[in-house]
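Protocol step 4 of 5: obtain the predicted structure for the target chain.
Materials: sequence only (see below). No template structures provided, no constraints applied. The aim of this step is simply to have a reference model before the mutagenesis design in step 5. Sequence pasted as it appears in the construct record:
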Amino acid sequence: MISANGLRKKFAALEVLDDVSLDVRPGAVTALVGPNGSGKTTFIKIVLGLTRADAGSFSVDGHLADAAGAYRRHIGYMPQAARFPENLKVKDVLALIRALRPDAPRDEELVSAFGLAAEMDKAVGTLSGGTRQKVNAAIAFLFRPSLLILDEPTAGLDPVASGILKEKIRQVRAEGRSVLITSHILAELEELADDVAFLCDGRLRFAGTVAALLERTGQTRLEPAIAALMRIEGARRSALVEPATTTGWPTPAPEAL
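Step 4 output (structure tokens):
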């Protein structure tokens, strides 16, 4: 569903993505994981068209990304914290979103499942964080996208609402659509993920099924398997830098030069 080839991105001298090639397959939930600063957010922003890669290319559902951005019609995005006009009522926000694609097929199941009918006449600024997140989720799924990008989707949701959203994700997967999900709650990813893409220092260090990751790390659960990858990368970093010199600055090891 996403096919990325050789994506590179620099901000000044910092290389945030370094030759990242990743396929997110149809009918699967792919967990995008990695330590803070690993390049996850930049990768998502490039796919969403919010920033441009310096090199490389990608397509979504077979549609090559270009400056026109038509491929984005196939994406539903749920940010970690959505921003809506505080003075608008919930019904007005949904009406504005629906008007963007008047002829597109709709899926309003989450509007009903979350009980948002009772919130329609409330201003967004008066909503709790959890209710805002429900509106956020309902909008992401609204146009039946081929690809859903979910950034910390259950943040702020109560257990019942979280369960509803997870079941919706499973339904989307069963329909052959794709989900790219990030979350710091690894137990949540363990429930949902079929595949794992692990970024570290801007490089894709692992991409494959959860089963393949467990086999590679010798673990039986996803959380310790990801922790094992992080330890491996931590050891690799340490091996590239010698102990501090008398000046107090670390000296790169010869193989790092």
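Step 4 remarks: The chain has eight helices and twelve strands. Residues 111 and 204 are 36 Å apart (CA to CA).
Proceed to step 5.
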